[in-house]
């Protein structure tokens, strides 16, 4: 439910309580008010950006893996070979050392 009131246009960041001021300065007072109207009273966790970036990085690593380039991927992504291996091992799409994932096994007759 979006409320449109004249008073909303009068609100400035310095009028807000301290805990909301930095958010208003980052996204703008209008956007903060829109969030408050839309989601006010509910709890929403905002993860750190590095969590999203790590997910994107890991997908790229899996896509770039050709079965022989572990060392090159470690260098490219500035990670250890063990870290690259663990990312690949954790992926459903990666097959390492000739091992099959649970999803690759054929039904036994």
- CATH fold-type name of the largest domain: Arc Repressor Mutant, subunit A
**Total helical elements:** 5
Mean pLDDT metric? 81
Shape: rod-shaped
Unreliable parts: none
Instruction: Specify the CATH architecture of the largest domain.
Output: Orthogonal Bundle
Q: What would you say this structure looks like, in words?
A:
With 109 residues, the chain is mainly alpha-helical. It folds into 2 domains: 6-39, no CATH class; 49-102, Arc Repressor Mutant, subunit A (Orthogonal Bundle). Helix content is 50%, strand content 0%. The protein contains 5 helices and no strands. The protein has helices spanning 18-27, 29-39, 49-64, 70-77, 81-90. The longest helix is centred in the middle third of the chain and has 16 residues, at 49-64. It is rod-shaped and about 65 Å long. The mean pLDDT is 81.
Short description:
By secondary structure, this protein is an all-alpha fold. It is built from 5 helices and no strands.
């Amino acid at each position: 439910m979006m409320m449109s009131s004249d008073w909303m246009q009068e609100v400035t960041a310095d009028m807000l309580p301290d805990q909301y001021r930095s958010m208003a300065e980052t996204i703008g007072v209008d956007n903060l008010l829109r969030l408050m109207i839309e989601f006010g009273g509910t709890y929403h966790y905002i993860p750190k950006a590095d969590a999203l970036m790590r997910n994107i990085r890991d997908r790229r690593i899996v896509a770039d893996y050709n079965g022989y380039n572990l060392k090159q991927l470690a260098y490219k992504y500035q990670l250890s070979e063990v870290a690259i291996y663990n990312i690949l091992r954790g992926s459903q799409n990666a097959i390492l050392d000739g091992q099959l994932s649970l999803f690759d096994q054929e039904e036994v007759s």
